[in-house]
Amino acid sequence: MSSVNDSPNHFMVLDAISRGMKSIGKIAKVTKLDKALVEMIVNDLAAQRLIIKSEKKSFFGGKKEELTVTETGMRMLMAKKQELERKFQQIQQWYSNGQTQQLQNSMQSDRMWLPFMLFSGIMNAVFFMSMMSFMGAALTPAESAHAGDAGAADTGAGADAGADSGAGVDGGMDSGGDFGGDFGGGDFSF
Question: Read out DSSP for 47-87?
């Protein structure tokens, strides 16, 4: 049994359960954690009585496991979120004041909590990406997975610019990849 207070993954799973994810598969998908790791964390949280595992009958007569957060688990989750929100407010203040050294020191000490802060909505992905750019820091795979929505939007804009610049080479044909379902303005009368 590991200490929940020291594990961001435990809090991510606890937060997912508190948001209504009741199965291990859904939690693994939402948190982007390995299913075996989620299962281990769920067992750990149940042993510490922060969640309750219960058997429910499924629609086709089978049984499925359903997870709910206990009051103690919810209090612990809210306390951790408040602690991280205070840290985030301090980080925002350092960022807006241009205090790079304090920002870098804080980010190094709290780096393991960044995926949870992104997952729980304490820190938004756009601020996270601009802060990392400001410091010139690279992302770890876990951080880039949770900040992926902002990254996907950025790469999509770059792909559009590339498609526009290549229009002269292919005779003006639209190679932008718009698969919106319009048939290109042809008159189809049936």
Answer: HTTSEEEEEEE-TTS-EEEEEEE-HHHHHHHHHHHHHHHHH
Domain ranges for the chain: 4-69, 81-149
**For residue 17, which amino acid is it?**
I
Look up the pTM and report it. 0.66
Q: Name which of 162, 111, 141 is nearest 33 in CA terms.
A: 141
pLDDT tens digits along 94-142 = 988 988 888 888 888 888 898 899 988 898 888 888 877 777 766 666 6
Which residues of the chain are under the pLDDT cut of 50?
1, 150-180, 188, 190
Residue whose C-alpha is closest to residue 32's, from 115, 114, 111: 115
Map residue 151 onto helix, strand or coil. Answer: helix
Looking at domain 4-69, its CATH class is: mainly alpha
